Amino acid sequence: MSRDFNTRRCFPYPPHALNCYVHLNSDRPCLLPLYFNQRPRLPPLSPSSFSPPPISSPHTDRTLLRKPEPALATTYTSPMFAREALYVAVALLSVAFLIRRRRRASALPLPPGPRGWPVIDNLFDWPFESAWIPFAEWSKKFGDIMHIKIFGLHIVVISSFDTANTLMSQATYSDRPILTMVGKLMNFTPSIVLAPYGEHWKSMRRFTQQSLNRSSSLMFLPSQLSDARLLLQELLERPTNYIGAIRYALGKNIIENTYGIRITSPNSEYVKLSRETHEVIQNAVVPGSFFVDVFPALRFVPEWFPGAGFKRLARVAKARGEHMVDGAFDAAKRAMIGEDSMVSLVGTLLSREGPEEMTREEYEYTIKWAAGSLYGAGTESTTSSIATFLLTMVLFPDVQKRVQAELDAVVGRKRLPTFEDRASLPYLEATIKESLRFHPPTPLGIAHRLVEDDVVQGYRIPKGAIILPNIWAMNMNEKQYEHPERFSPERYLGPTPALESPVFGFGRRACLGVHYSTAAIFITVSSILSVFDLRAQDKDGKDVQIEPAFTGGKSNTQHHGYLHPLTRIPSLYSHPKPFPCRITPRSQEAIELVKAGTSVL
Ligand code: HEM
């Protein structure tokens, strides 16, 4: 079996790709038949065509012995040669036609965008802080498909849902950018999030989907319920560290369900390792975070060289990453044979034979890398979603009251919510959808890469371009959402609900954790609101005004001095900035429920 995770050469172009290029990108009819019609036609072949030429020379015998003149040989060729000549002509014409089309396509303009400078292009225009907001502003001037270039690297930002959905669903748009820092230096290319579109990625995706699809992910619900209840206990005891507690509960659940390793504290080895590894990787995944992604040759600069802090950072991240991916996988194998074994994604896959075309070694390698990025892909995004939900609850107390009223009516005050209640809580579901729209956890999604030249809306998108969907701009599109700046769960109720935000991405690379994470969000926020009130108050109970604000870039303080103090790294995830949120139990009965809830399970 060919494994193409180290090379992009094995990219399986679909056989129809060329046809699509010719026809889909053309608004004119194919010119090939016209071209043929203009050529002088060959005389029809008839039996007389095969008779020898009339002999006009008296030197008949010698003429016949001579080698025929080339012109005569062409004119009087056999039908087999005529057919071959026709095939060659058609092939040549097709090639000429394709070259002409390609030339015409390359003569097309790139999508509009800010004018750059020679050589550095738009380097100084690139917004490192909350890039989705300036991009959305620019798109008002340049349109839904916008082009930005940095040192020759083409970046296309798409701000329309329909365009992103149409383009990014295609195989040619399903690759990931080649990022030197996170891929080559940190060695994370084989992970499911970063792997190039190819056989290795397809296998990882297939295996992961077997556990995370709508029906299989039901097996994780009991543990998600149990962890939500542990979280309530934690919030009762230490209400101020609510974001840390939510992050831990989600990370614990993902590690346990992925590897079957029991996690007992935030200091457990794999929680710490996963968190630390992911802290570095999540930023390196954003194209443009590191200069070495623009100038790959910089990776050969020695670590001691001034400004080469990225090399030291990469070395540390690589070692941590290997420890996490290999260590957790080995621990999962040990956990499978332990007395206290749990159902897990890795355990379930390892207990199967694996596909015939793979050796056992290849099968295990694929599972290891499929599992290795789930903590990273799932924890921050889900934590950010829940944090935004809580923020909207303190910003809009009327909505909070309405959610609680619905919970009281359906669940009552004598028990905690379960997954069976979900279908009966439409207002809560609408509020979750609206909070995801209000601020998406990954406002610029995860970058895709185009593997073939394309022409879209009369613009040329070059092969290798990085494609960034501006999900934030899509969510704030006035044509799609009435008063998009308003928080209004009602837009998701009624006979014609609004479009759900594309927070889970697009096409073949769309999020694999959609069912798992929406279940986690539901059980966490329903449990919290059924027993706690959230208020915009400081720790002394004084009301405070909150201006919603979200993170959009990280300074290098996160990177323990490996990078230059002026370096700012754009982050993949955007979280609400810390906001005052006083969490108090709704009643004595609620306190009893929280305490009982954890011991019941
Ligand atoms: C609210 C929570 C989440 C959000 C908003 C979210 C969002 C996203 C987005 C935007 C992408 C990129 C899609 C694209 O390239 O177009 C993605 C990819 C991915 N997500 Fe999530 N995600 C969430 C939770 C999770 C969870 C809980 C898991 C796993 C347990 C997960 C696993 C993945 C994986 C494996 C990928 C990579 C898919 C690929 O490249 O083939 N996600 N997610």
TrEMBL record:
InterPro entries the record matches: Cyt_P450 (IPR001128), Cyt_P450_CS (IPR017972), Cyt_P450_E_grp-I (IPR002401), Cyt_P450_sf (IPR036396), Cytochrome_P450_fung (IPR050364)
SUPFAM superfamilies per record: Cytochrome P450
Pathway given in the UniProt record: Secondary metabolite biosynthesis
Protein name: Cytochrome P450
Keyword rRNA-binding: no
Cofactor entry: heme
Species this chain originates from: Lactarius akahatsu
Record family assignment: Belongs to the cytochrome P450 family.
